[in-house]
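Entry 14. Structure prediction run on the chain below.
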Amino acid sequence: MEILSKIWSYFATNILQQPAFMIGFIVLIGYILLQRPWYDILAGTIKAIVGYLILTVGSGGLVNNFRPVLVGLGERFNINATVIDPYFGQNAVTAGVEEVFGKGFGDAMILLFIAFIVNILLVRFSKYTKLRALFTTGNVQVQQAATAYWLIMFALPGLLAPGMHVPMLIVMALLLGAYWAVGSNLTIKPCQEVTDGAGFALAHQQMFGVAFFYWLAGKLFGNEGKKKDKKVKKIEDLELPGFLSIFNDNMVSASVLMLVFFGAILCVLGKDYLIAGGFMKEGQSMLFYVIQTCLYFAVYLAILQMGVRTFVAELTTSFQGIASKLLPGSVPGVDCAVIFGFGASNAVTLGFVSGFIGQILAIIVLIALKSPVLIICGFVPVFFDNATIGVFANEKGGLKAVLVLPFISGLCQVFGSALIAGWVGMAYGGYLGMWDWAVVWPVFTVVMKYLSYIGVTLIFIGLLAIPQIQYYKDKKGYFLMTEDYEAYKELKANKAN
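Output returned:
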């Protein structure tokens, strides 16, 4: 047993929690199952790892460049508040679990392991569960396992009793594994339609949010329901006149928008603060520092998109081996940033800005109401949630949907995080704060807190019912969507006619 534990620990630390190597491992296994020549297997694995590392450079650059700017607002004005950010949230949970519940963080890693097995089993028996997506984003799984651990312990304190260690982990793993499988499964249709059948789902922190806003964009701004004859004008279809035509170039539009919004924030922070915080050098021009910092947004976004193009083809091709031999009809669930390489680039920027405005407005409301819990924007939720939602909103509802729906998402992130962080006592400086964890998991926590184990049962059954409903609504196309997307499109066209 100890040997198995060491093997798992090594795998979890060096592969599962390292998305680049996890993706490379999946590509390796997939190509082996497809019986490709060794040199093709080697080349594909290397390209997948390098491509994901390029994506990591892009996304990491965005986070490192802009997170200090947002956190700096709290420091600059001496606001003692909770930062909504996965990394701040993970640190808060690590500090709080031991102090509040007397438990070590190692339990969260065991939880991750069992929940991952639950996800695999649910997909393996897709004939019955109707689940088709394997969650492969290991760093996100660590953050979610830690946060779920706290929320479930708070809701079900009876699991802390002596002799309840194993039941505690089983309860948690069933909920978390079902959430991973069902949430990523919900994003399959949106991803397939945005990418024209690229063959992946999202496995991140806003899976239910993506599915909800994709549906809402079609109903409110698109051509679904009573609006079947409506022509949806997407961002990429707009032809701007005169000097505005420069904004047709996403690099230009992203740079200008960042100069306007983040340039203003940098000016509010002030030169003295930026120098004292180590962001600027003594004697450096404030003007050119602001310009350079904001233009890096376009730079890192371009790097991120290049990384996506490099590894996605290898991943989706190789995963056919896993889908055909081990997990029939399945697709890999990947980082939400992957979608930025397929949707309209301007939707990424506008979704981000719209969500940021929503968050700022919500924070002003909290301050005005003298909320006991104040929130500081974290770059990861405000960008990766709202930019992702912006891409999907554009696909279904065009420009209006991109401007409105991420704004609503921003409101939900702040208000939801303030409510749940205050209620469960997560007063350690951070909360995960991304859409599903500001909206969906707080609802789960309320149900578990007031209905106890009956609530756990209802949540688990409710999660597993979602794919059954999806399948019932489209029995012919449901599995065809992942197995043969061209045939699926033909089926849909025939139904429409």
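Residues 379-424 form the longest helix (46 residues).
Filed with the rest of this week's runs.
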